[in-house]
TrEMBL record:
The chain crosses the membrane at residues 46-70, 90-111, 158-175, 196-216, 228-250, 313-330, 336-360. The keyword Cytoplasm does not apply. Its main location: membrane. It comes from the Bacteria. It is found in: Cell membrane. PANTHER family: PROTON/GLUTAMATE-ASPARTATE SYMPORTER, PROTON_GLUTAMATE-ASPARTATE SYMPORTER. This is Na+/H+-dicarboxylate symporter. It holds the Pfam family SDF.
Length: 465
């Protein structure tokens, strides 16, 4: 019991993850240099199992979170208020995406990533990626609606699950009390899945050891070195969004201390970095928003929606920088109008990032939209594919930060932000508390009872009296 409690303390947990990150890199390099195939295979297995544990819960988590979130908006003042909150949320998604993609373009123009680089991807990688369906506006629109209600779940298509969840959630909202039993089941399923994920989260140090170790064992540092300009550009762009744009918006729009925000969001951002999954981080993100004073009902709607459609790292900064990198790599000079297209795709194409291969869809959608030759797209994506795990960690952390920031901004503008909760100390979501690691404090959310006194529904996890 005491060991688990010590492990779940944020400083200890963060240190453990950092040690696992370094150890994984060292083991990966050892496996590659010494040609120890058994070690490479072991690292691959560990990483794959951890990823599978995260992903198997994504579909039920996203569906139930959106359904419960939409129906919970009824508690905030009726359909007009719900529509206004939804409209402001989407608007802020678009505004922050616009800022992020402009930063990505600026970083690309200043650093010129890819200029002078000479690298050829393996034919196996080109063939593997060529077999994937590339992003296109037609495929995006056609892929939103599933053939039937259950195919989206069976195929694991996150975008279609989001579409079905929005329809079902709106229908449940319209039916009101008649849909109460259905909503209660969804609350219970969400709570169960969230509990399971809280256990999986504790395995993050082991998982990151396998993921990073496998990446280094597979690619080594010989492939990373020529792509260092891309890594630097992506990290610089995402850090500017994470550490400059978001703090400015929090300070002057949300009137929230950036230091307090990052103190409460650190666990979610840390797990997003090592897991590379916004969806798997959803329970932490949602509870972090609540701990920052966002009304639980609104957080239950905005954060799940943002998890699938609001990704400033994957859908804005990265496509902009990677497109400039690939253009420079092959000596293609982009025109002003092509840069405008990159901006438009980032703002309006964020839905393409829903799912585990969203980065691929969004990047190929952007490359196709700026009218690069198909051969250039295929070879360019194959080049950046090798270092994607390294890029994806920072992209995902930026995504998750934005998914928490926007609800805070909207809540402040609507007078829904509880400053008492914001300023109260709170334990890390799903890691703190008095249980063996994962009591989320969501009893109010499970029952849906918001009639009890005052701020109970937004009481922060582990808050001291």
């Amino acid at each position: 019991m005491s060991v688990v409690r010590s492990f779940t303390k944020p400083k200890f947990f963060g240190l453990t993850v950092l040690v696992a990150l370094v150890l994984g890199a060292l083991l990966g390099l050892l496996a590659r240099q010494a040609q120890q195939q058994w070690l490479t295979s072991t690292l691959h297995t560990i990483g794959s199992v951890f990823t599978s544990l995260l992903q198997f819960a994504v579909i039920p988590l996203v569906f139930t979170a959106i359904v419960v979130g939409i129906t919970s908006l009824r508690d905030l003042g009726g359909s007009r208020k719900a529509a206004r909150l939804g409209g402001k949320t989407v608007l802020w998604f678009a505004i922050t995406s616009l800022i992020a993609v402009l930063i990505g373009i600026a970083v690309g123009l200043v650093l010129h990533p890819g200029s002078g680089v000479r690298i050829t991807p393996s034919q196996a990688t080109v063939d593997k990626l060529s077999a994937r369906t590339q992003g296109s506006w037609g495929a995006l629109v056609e892929g939103v609606v599933p053939d039937n209600l259950f195919s989206a779940f069976a195929d694991g298509n996150v975008l279609q699950v989001v579409f079905v969840a929005l329809l079902v959630g709106l229908a449940a909202y319209a039916l009101g009390p008649k849909a109460a039993p259905f909503v209660a089941v969804n609350r219970a399923v969400f709570d169960v899945v969230q509990k399971v994920l809280s256990w999986v989260i504790l395995l993050a140090p082991i998982g990151v050891l396998g993921l990073i170790g496998n990446a280094f064992a597979t690619y080594g540092n010989g492939f990373v070195r020529p792509l260092l300009s891309l890594i630097v550009a992506v990290y610089l762009g995402t850090l500017l969004v994470l550490l400059v744009v978001y703090p400015v918006l929090l300070r002057f729009v949300g009137r929230v201390s950036p230091l307090r925000f990052f103190a409460k969001a650190w666990t979610a951002l840390q797990f997003a970095f090592v897991s590379r999954s916004s969806s798997a981080t959803l329970p932490l993100s949602r509870q972090t928003a609540v701990n920052l004073g966002v009304d639980r009902a609104y957080a239950g709607f905005a954060v799940p929606l943002g998890t699938t459609t609001k990704m400033d790292g994957c859908a804005a900064v990265y496509p902009a920088v990677a497109t400039i990198f690939i253009a420079n790599l092959f000596g293609v000079e982009l025109s002003v109008w092509q840069y405008v297209v990159i901006v438009l795709v980032a703002v309006f194409g964020a839905l393409a990032t829903a799912g585990t291969t969203g980065w691929f869809t969004m990047l190929t959608l952007t490359l196709g939209a700026v009218n690069l030759p198909p051969e250039t797209i295929a070879l360019g994506v194959a080049v950046v594919y090798g270092i994607d795990p390294i890029l994806d960690m920072m992209r995902t952390a930026t995504n998750v930060a934005g998914q928490i920031v926007v609800p805070v901004l909207v809540s402040r503008s609507e007078g829904l932000l509880d400053d008492a909760v914001l300023n109260a100390p709170s334990a890390p979501p799903l890691l703190g508390g008095d249980t063996d690691g994962a009591d989320t404090g969501d009893r109010a959310d499970v029952t849906g009872d918001r009639s009890e006194a005052g701020t109970r529904a937004t009481e922060p996890v582990g808050a001291k009296a």
